Amino acid sequence: MKILFLTHRFPHPPNRGDSIRSFHFLRRMASMGKVWLGTLYDQTPQEESWEVLNGLCENVLAVPWGKWGKWRRAAVSLAMGKTMTEGLFSHPVLRRGLQEWARQESWDVVVVFCSSMFPYIAAMEPIWTRRPRIVTDLVDVDSQKWFDYAREAPLWKKILFRTEGKRLREWEKKVGQKSDVLLAVTDEEVALYRSFCPIESIFSVPNGVDTEYFNAEQPFLQAEVEIPCRGVFVGALDYQANVEGVRWFLEKVLPPLRKRCPDFVLDIVGNRPTATLQQVCRNTPGAHLIGGVPDVRPYLKRTQVVVIPLQVARGLQNKVLEACSMGKAVVVSPCAAEGIQGVAGQDFVVCSSVEAWQQTLPRLFEEESRRTLLGQAGRKLVVEKYGWQTQLDRLASFLKVS
């Protein structure tokens, strides 16, 4: 089988939500046949990453995204009545390279990771001598994310975000109509998509977790001990939903929480923290901005509670699954828990208000047995329902050409 895989972010290292999913998809596809990879990157990949991808793929075409060029393309796309998303991920070098491949190769399947990469299909269609099976992984229904952002945004952003949401929703309909199969990360995302585009050919393929990697019993972690009154947030710190969620916690929850628990500290771990977040952390007692680290597991192991206070979230949150896999007590906002087939109060704790956060965290710091039970239940949930093998077997069934 010959497979073309298009993804909007370089899929290695698998250290953030989209790259984790795309890398595991890529590895499974490589076991099924020959894979051609077309992708973008915003940071120059390490040599190790090139070696990994070249070892998996027949050919790799990776193009630098461009720090300012991508935003110019997004603005032009918006002005032309299209979505910012289409312009943001449209790159002439990648488009020409894929067209050249299309003149030389005939693929059995094209897998498109996120609707943002679907415009490249139109660029190749006139060249194809045989139409491949097209499988598009929406992951999340991105249009809803823009509507969610618009709810709390100032007026000018509200107008912009709503416009993007409306246009992107129409684009997502077109993607569904032109794909043979659509995938999404949860049944909830599938139901949301069907609410505005009632097609049958959309199915859920949840994210998985490497439960051996995210395992607190790893020998090298045995020296890590819990630090009293310590919480941690782990996530990409240049992603708006993460940044806004952390800011909300630091501004709304942390100050009154420290009046009750003066020793409480929140470790904030993740790559490329924004300047705004850095400033908020500097001005907030109890906020400990760590930034990027080579391995997040020691920080997860030493914390008493993993804090995931997202105010906007789509799909299935890897950060929740990974924290549960580490056997930690995990406290989440309602939207961060959506799509996870667990039991609130048993596998993790859901807090839906500032008051709930302020009451829940001190109790968990005081009740070691409660933290232990939550950690054990969360670990059991992930091992039984979210191992990658199960999810990738499901993916493979949609890629097979009859």
Strand content: 15-25%
Low-confidence segments: none
Instruction: Specify the number of helices.
Output: 17
Which range best describes the helical content: under 10%, 10-25%, 25-40%, 40-55%, 55-70% or over 70%?
40-55%
* Radius of gyration using CA atoms only: 21 Å
For the largest beta sheet, what order do the strands appear in spatially? 3-2-1-4-5-6-7
Number of strands: 13
Q: What structural class do the secondary elements suggest?
A: alpha/beta
Order of helices and strands: EHEHEHHHEHEHHEHEEHEHEHEHEHEHHH
Shape annotation = globular
Largest sheet: 7 strands, parallel
Distance between the termini: 12 Å
Mean pLDDT reading? 93
